[in-house]
Amino acid sequence: MILTDVHRVSQDVYERRVSRAVPRQGDLILAREAPAGNVAIVSPGIEVCLGQRTMLLRPDSSFVVPEYLNYYLNAPEQRDRMLRLANGATVSHINVADIRNMPVQLPSRGEQSKVAELLNVLDDKIDLNNRLNDYLLAA
Question: What distance in Å separates the CA atoms of residue 113 and residue 64, rounded to the nearest whole number?
Fold first, then answer.
């Protein structure tokens, strides 16, 4: 989840927006508009307030590894599937019902953990390389 240039809200607005569910670690946030289909996982220690064009996904962790589901939904095939569900004349948006009815193919929970761990290591390496590149460019 990239938190640079995010909009902050007052405590009153926050409390209204989380009245049904407070986002917590392992939840996924799906952008229903602008751009439709972006998915991010809530990291530990982060307090999140959903916007009007977002949807909270709370995976059942006894069945689904949240990190795996995040990678799964961000994979090009799944992103394309979500974008095909999107509609709208000026700004494409995804309906909540379409997301709820979208089939998800899951391997065993053990396999999900292995895939998520491997992809997380690769993401960490990419992040480290990007930070090193930024540092070298600034020097």
Answer: 9
State yes or no: pLDDT of 48 exceeds 90.
Answer: no
Q: Is the peptide bond before 35 cis (omega within 30 degrees of 0)?
A: yes
Say whether pLDDT at 3 is over 80. no
Distance CA(75)–CA(94), nearest Å, equals: 17
Classify 93 as helix, strand or coil.
strand
Which residue is listed with tokens 């961000």? 74
- H/E element holding 59? none
Which pair of tokens denotes residue 7? 């909009």
Q: Give the CA diameter of the chain.
A: 50
